[in-house]
Amino acid sequence: MQSMIFAAGLGTRLKPLTDTMPKALVRVGGAPLLEHVINRLIDAGCKRMVVNVHHFANQIIDYLNMHDYGVDILVSDETKQLLDTGGGIKRAASLFDDSLPVLIHNVDILSNVDLKAFYQHAVDSKTDALLLVSRRITQRYLVFNSAMRLVGWTNVATGEVKSPYEDVRQLHFVQPTDDTTSYHQQGHYLYAFSGIHVLAPTAIQAVEAVDEDKFPIMDFYLRNCDKLNIYGELKSDLQLLDVGKLDTLQAAEDFIVNLGYQSPKVEQ
Length: 268
Hints:
This protein has eight helices and 15 strands.
């Protein structure tokens, strides 16, 4: 198993903490966010990780150099330019083992996801990409067909729809409610993306072929979902916390305790 941790973001919503450190090193439950994600991936059986860096890049590099997690951790340097999620994967592609899928995980996400099982599902399903999704009230949803194949995206507040399929672009989706069945609309299913996904080597190669250097991975998915086998996996009991704002830090402390996140497995 191999993975990539997105740790290059500016962390503007966590200011003033991120005025002097990267978001990845903000401490929650006695350890940096980066360490929590690394430990979760190790628990899942991950042996090779790539961490991208930009904001206070040297602090993350120094941190990784001073700690031994017992697995290969490589750095993808975006110091000169922040490349967004798709561009970040493209830049890091040469660091991956090109025979294995890559699990992508944001550094500021805490969840109850069984990452080992999710990765194995991606391997077994032989999809080009598998996206973990859930029923969650938001404004932006991924749109899937009855087979859970990605066919588009919508913003239910503005009515905007993105899809390579003309018939999907003609649809108008409305805000789902907490009622489970309301996520099924006009023969399609609306689910929220978790920020956790797995790309097969075929998808990595397609990302490498993109002409731009900087682009969101979701734009790539939406441009290519008619050509690549991109599917969603619904986790109905998903508990996920985006540690993106100062007022979420205490919630993150509680989240770590309640989900029994492992204590650091690090030699300093």
